[in-house]
Write a structure and sequence with these properties.
The complex is a heterodimer of chains A (218) and B (106). Chain A is mainly alpha-helical and 218 residues long. Chain A contains eight helices and no strands. In chain A, α4 packs antiparallel against α5. The chains are: A mainly alpha (218), B mainly alpha (106). At the A-B interface, α3, α4, α5, α6 and α7 of A face α1, α2 and α3 of B.
Chain lengths: 218, 106
């Protein structure tokens, strides 16, 4: 946070020279603009009930996601994806985002996974265990994924270890609030999104039609 | 709740998606990994929205839009997979090497 902004917002100014190099923590927290809230964050040892529920559902979600990408059976992989996305809906509920949780179940579990299962059936993926579902570069994939996870977690802990969510204010993610925001401030992006969905629909039909662009057929 | 809990779950979900994207052979399974990565992004959006207590609810609205875009992406992706299967009779990514250089080793 630069000294002018700190003085303007009433916080105590940083005692640092103009030429000192800001640390990552300073830059990121200044970007978030919420440094004052960091002072009274509780310790990580005071575990609340919502944190326990969040960690339990999070472990289920991560385990199901891991089984989804390592399963040797394509249909089981799709069904583990159902568990992972359903667990994610539970995480949204703990975070008080009710409408997002409901939409997540409706669209992901209800539509996307069914579509993926259709895709598996249409491409005649063999039902049952298959030995060759993974490419030979699997060790490289493990290294890349573990490196990405380590880097992300290190950066997140450095930046957000004092940030605290206040889940007590009710109605933050209720359908009424989000619907009001969606059809009030965000109505133009919403309409653009509907045009995008129409374009995707027409595009999918155009791509899969047999009698378009096939030379020598008509 | 500390913000780190949702952020670390989201980072794990994203990394699992990266692994699946790189390691799977079947195109439909690769699409599933992309779904996992998009879901991780939505979790981040919702967590930051609750943390910042935005008046416009921009994070949750954006999460809804990401969900809709993911649905459109899966529809188009499966259309392409279907057309690919009709023309090549395969759904393995390693067989789609038309753009590879002829003299590179495989």
């Amino acid at each position: 946070m630069d000294p002018d902004r700190a003085a303007a917002s009433g916080a105590r100014p940083e005692r640092r020279g103009w030429l000192s190099v800001p640390t990552t923590l300073t830059v990121l927290t200044a970007a978030a603009g919420a440094r004052d809230e960091f002072a009274d964050a509780p310790s990580y040892l005071d575990v609340t009930g919502s944190e326990i529920i969040f960690v339990l559902i999070g472990v289920i979600t991560l385990g199901a996601a891991l089984l989804c990408v390592t399963s040797r059976n394509v249909v089981r992989a799709a069904l583990w994806l159902v568990v992972a996305l359903g667990g994610l809906a539970g995480l949204y509920l703990v975070l008080t985002a009710e409408l997002v949780a409901i939409v997540q179940i409706l669209i992901y579990v209800g539509a996307v996974v069914v579509l993926l299962l259709f895709g598996l059936m249409v491409t005649r993926a063999p039902i049952g265990r298959q030995p060759d579902l993974d490419t030979p570069n699997r060790p490289v994939a493990v290294v890349v994924a573990v490196a990405a996870f380590g880097l992300l977690v290190a950066a997140l802990i450095d930046a957000f270890r004092f940030a605290y969510l206040n889940l007590d204010s009710t109605g933050q993610g209720s359908p009424e609030t989000i619907g009001g925001a969606l059809f009030g401030s965000w109505v133009l992006p919403f309409e653009v999104l509907s045009v995008l969905l129409l374009a995707a629909l027409i595009g999918a039909i155009a791509v899969t039609r047999r009698d378009v662009g096939a030379p020598g057929r008509r | 709740m500390h913000l780190l809990y949702p952020l670390i779950v989201s980072a794990g979900l994203f990394s699992i998606g990266v692994y699946g994207l790189l390691a799977r052979r079947n195109v439909v399974l690769v699409l599933m990994s992309v779904e996992l990565m998009l879901a991780a992004v939505s979790l981040n959006l919702v967590a930051f929205d609750v943390w910042l207590a935005d008046v416009l609810r921009s994070g949750q609205v954006l999460a809804l839009m990401v969900i809709a875009i993911a649905a459109a992406e899966v529809g188009l992706g499966l259309a392409i997979v279907l057309q690919l299967f009709r023309q090549r009779a395969t759904s393995a990514i390693d067989d789609l090497d038309t753009l590879i250089e002829p003299d590179s080793q495989r």
